[in-house]
Amino acid sequence: MTAPLPIPWPPAAARRKRWLIGVSGGLDSMALMHLLKEASFRDVVVCHLDHGLRGRESAADARFVKRAAEKLGFSVEIAKIQLRKEMADGGQSLETAGRNARHRFFAACASIHRCKRLLQAHNLDEQAETVLWNLMRGSHGCRGMREVSGLEMGGMRMEIHRPLLGIRKAELQAWMEERKLKWREDASNRVNDVARNRIRNEALPLLAEIAKRDIAPLLARSAEADGDHREVMDWALAKAEVLDPQGRLHLGVLRELPPALRIHAIAGFLKTQGIRDISGSLLANCAAMLDPASPASVNLAGGRRLRRRAGRFFIG
Question: Does domain 241-315 have CATH number 1.20.59?
Answer without folding.
Answer: yes
